[in-house]
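Loading example: each entry is read as two labelled lines plus one structure line.
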Amino acid sequence: MNLVQLLVDSLALGSQYALVALGIGLIFGVMRMINFAQGDLITFGAYMLVVPTVSDVAPPMIAALPTPVLIVATIAVVALAALLTERLAFRSVRAKGADGPTLLITSFAIGYFIQSVILFLHTGRPKSVSVLPELSQQITFSGVRVALVDLVTIFASLGLLLSVGLFLNRTRGGIALRAAAEDFLMARLIGVKANRVIAVAFLVSGALAGAVTLMFVAKTGVLDFRMGVPLAIAGFVATVIGGMGSLTGAVLGGFALGLASTLLQSLLPPDLRPARDAFLYGMVIFVLLVRPQGLFVFGPGRERV
Amino acid sequence: MKRLNPAIGTFLSLTILVIVVAGLGYLLPGMSRTVTEGFIYATLVVGLGLFVGNTGIVSFGHASFAMIGAYAASWFTCCEGMRQVFLPGLPDMIAANTLPVPIAAVIAMGVAATVALLAGAILLRLNGVAASIGLLSFLFMVKTIYENWNGWTSGQSSLVGLPLVVGIAEAAAGLVVALCLALFYQGSASGLLVRAAREDEVASRSVGVRVWRERLICFVLSAAITALGGVMFAHYLGSISVVQFWLDLTFLTLAMLVVGGRNTITGAVVGALVITALRDGLRTLENGVQTPFGLAGIPEGVQEIALALLLLVVLVARPRGLTGGREFNLFR
């Protein structure tokens, strides 16, 4: 395999992971909760592209709209769904002073709820949908063929990461979000509104999930009611190996995971390739052991008293 | 009268509960499957809850131990005569001997405990969420390995022909063994220390609790109990496959634990029984019920939605679960 191709592949995969990890990291920052439902929001967005039907061939719904509207609509729908999960479930659980495990299980339950509703409305059979078909061509430069959709994914992700970075550093809402992630109680004492800052985190995280929906479906063209689960799991792993609570760490963790995954796929001997995930998650456990505070976090890992 | 040790009191009380439910299973028509399944799930959830409740670490990895147990037992009980056809990788010594299911179950618990000792020694150096993610990674690793370890597990296809020996009485017996082990541990010194670390890890370290060691003991025992549940599951269904022990089982058992009450063994048992009964009721409705006005029923797929909603409602309204965080004890 060519080096350029390998680079494009791992960057394309890594940028999807990075976006998911950033979405999870934003919510972790303000709530100290790993949001399992992040992957199922991606699935939800993907199924909003088609009309709910039990038949195998689903007519397009959002997917029938013109491209710019399609992109905006998908992102908006997923962002609203994320906001709704916060408003209907997380806020009530949080109001009871729930501990970390309870919140974790709540998000797990929401994810399962979204999956079962999709299963109910669309059945469990995989469906195909065509989104942004103009991206499905290959382009050749200096003798290397790469998929256009991968390049677009990489550049769109970089754009999104930059805009989230600008939002966090240059706007009032973003600074409030970072303050809340640093010390929630202190931020509230100096006038950051808890509910609003959490809602903003969910909104941004949902918008990122919507963007991943588009990239993922444009590449694979297949809908499955569990499609978001592997992405979400990659996202958690990325946030953990990157360093819990560090957004830069989460993004870098996503890229690192994409790179490791692509490298294992091309370097493992063919008869071991089906077991790639065993090696990947073995590496994850190894990283957790060697650097429990995260690969990209420098400072004490353990709570200091 | 001297008060009975609370662990023994809870054990006796829960055993009485199990006997009553088993009696109902024999008496009520059509309930025997539900009760048997309820006991098997209860065993799995007691295993999971022993770790989650006492350490405060949410485990996404316990389905692996059910799988390890189920497959380990099947190496000794499966499909007499055909075993080397289905599982060509087994050494002759194992393949040639068929053991009774209870003995195979003990071996399976030993295998799971050994794996838990090795994996836990590594994973339990992590804390809180990182430990949960580590356990999830472990679940993925074990699943991938078992799916590709064709000679010992028949890979992605299911392994059929296990003896169907588990009914109400056997499942009840298995559950009582699980309860005995779990409650004995909870009442032991290690159980107390591991709960101290759950409440405040830093403070417990400062008074000399070896957190890693106590958590590891708890993890190994909980893995063995979960494996027992897996063995019962396998010999109730008669066939096993890797996907049976995957995210669905992880979600279901966690939901049972949370609905019942996360920090108690009583909660694990009650949650498993209540949700099994509910799922079976809904499944019957999905299949349609004969009423005087014709066949009535609910659409397929309602069961999963109802389960997720129930879990959310319990989390919002009663975060400590149906049992409210207290052990069931008739002898207090």
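Residues 211-237 of chain B form the longest helix (27 residues).
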